[in-house]
Amino acid sequence: MGYSIALPTCVSSAVAAILAVAAPPISARAEPEKGAIAEQPSGGSDISEIRVTWSDIAALVDRHPSIAVGNQKTAAAQAAVDAARAVPNPNLAVNAAYGRARDASASRVEWGVGLSMPLGWIAKRKARVAAAQAGAGVAAAASETLRRDVLLQLSALFWHLSYEQERVTALAALNHQTAALARTIKQRVDKGESRPVAATRVEIEVEKIAGELAFARSALEMRQVQLGLWLGIGNGQRIVVAANLTELPQHISAATARERVRTGHPTLVTGQAEVQALTADVALERRQRMPGASVQVFTDHELDRTAYGVGLAVELPLWNLNKGNINQAQALLAARKSQLDAERIEIASVAIEAQATCQAGVGLAIRYRDQIQPRADSAANTIERTYALGEATLLELIDARRTLLETRMQRLAAFAQAQTECGRLAVLIGEETQ
User: Fold this and answer.
1) pLDDT reported for residue 34
2) How far apart are CA 368 and CA 414, in angstroms?
3) Residue pair 283/130 in contact by the 8 Å Cβ criterion
4) Which end of the chain is more exposed for a tag (fewer CB within 10 A), N or C?
5) Model pTM score
6) Structural domains in the chain plus CATH codes
7) Do residues 304 and 101 make contact, with C-beta atoms less than 8 angstroms apart?
């Protein structure tokens, strides 16, 4: 279904022919091949058009800077796992001194070498690796959350731009038709067939439409620049989205939406990963109570003797059993579990709201398409015919045109709202394509 606005004709066939002219709708233009961003010249202008679909944007989302941040943090967390697996290095101690016998009968350089290897890490290594792996899981889940947020933002920008394109197309067609009507009314005034005030009233309507068109074009340029910033579109290029605003998405039930966010929403996945990480922290803090130890191998070369031996150094846990750190880790774990329970309720509530808003938006768009718009068209056609028979005034004709315009704009807004809300629901439950 197109978005050109067909308004009622006036008293002559010439005017009717002029009013029948309308710009082709955005949705009727040929779409580029799926998965490719098509660049096309813009009618002899230096600005080239970049035609994109939602699939194109979804395919490019991984290049977004926010996604790069998440990937880098994930890589850092994975490096922490490698660090936790690493075996500590041994310690080498060397000492030297000049020694003299008490009777001053001999003197020489005395020296010693000791090599020690810590052993405490063996008992704590498994807990440290588990904590690091849980941290990597948190980073990966947080990266997916960033990706979902970026998709939500780009989805809203995509459908806002589609709506502005359709609005400019409709207003441009209406502006052209109203200007033609104004010329015709002026000719009738010049011939004495209409009062001079008729031309004034039509000129006022022309200025109103022109002002709305200028405002809509400004909004369109703003949306193009916004989306272009995210996609890295440079100067001399302009984004045109290839989307059918009236093609409504498939219905998703509230139960399905709740189930899908419950099992796969990044916020909940992140929360579960953080619970695992805090659980690993508790285990690690408990392992920290184990006394550290190190084995030593040494040799001492003194003035009157040479010694070789081994030794064992053990930390004595007399004053600190790490109880404070254990209690802190356990409290943080309990707090995160409670927060995760709250997040489950909140996410379920968000899913219910998103599904209801999507369903209501689709229902409103269908009502405008099937009920309101046809009646507005019928009313406008009736006023057109009565005006042609001289039974309606020009003011009534202009009012009918204005009502039809408002209805068409509201219809476009209803479809744009439905697409935006359903797009939000689709991203929320993990669907990237629309």
Assistant:
1) 38
2) 8
3) yes
4) N
5) 0.65
6) 13-428 (1.20.1600.10)
7) yes
Q: Which residue has the tokens 């080239």?
A: 48
> Which tokens sit at 56?
């194109």
Task: For residue 230, give both structure tokens.
Answer: 């995210």
Residue that the structure tokens 């394509």 belong to? 433
With tokens 């990237």, the residue in question is: 432
